[in-house]
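pasting for the record
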Amino acid sequence: MWSPLEFLGTVHDRLPVILKHAAGGSVLDVGCVDSRPCREPSRQRVHRKSDGLFRRLCQVHPDILGVDVDCEGIEILRSMGYPVRCEDAETMDLGRRFDTIVAGEVIEHLENPGVFLRNMRRHLADHGVLILSTPNPFHAGQSWRIWTHGRPAVHEGHVGWHDPVTMAQLLRRTGFEPFEAYWYQPHSAWLKTWKRLLRPYFSSNFLILARPC
């Protein structure tokens, strides 16, 4: 019988959590190009995203690889000197395994999340850690959006929602055991998100860390 997932608090930056579990060894960053093709051209998106998590990971991890299905964005990142490959995370075979896999705000874009997680299991070392983050469908800001606009805000590239309970269930079905979790609130809009101060389940996003089992 599995135990409920334990949340250790709320973070405003994912990097310290990632570095705690990825102090050394190899790192795979899945989804290293931002995915807003309807809003910005690839070069703008790449420059903005490269100032974020992937670039910060590159600064501290010499053995890192970024992958993304956006081949145009990957070519721009490669021209900037980043170690990247254009790959489909559901079907890729990189021919190696990694000590840490980071999948930040990726799974909600994928048609087959279970297939994706099983492929991540094949690419993760037996002692490794998968660090996954995704938007929380119960985010307090969504209630505000529904009240003011009649519907929730949905990224044009999203095809699914997961909350911590369903994500933990999916991880367990695909070869992982979750062992740690955090609420992730990158930006604080107090008027829209004050409810999360009383109930963290209203936070914007969440992180789950899992080991192979």
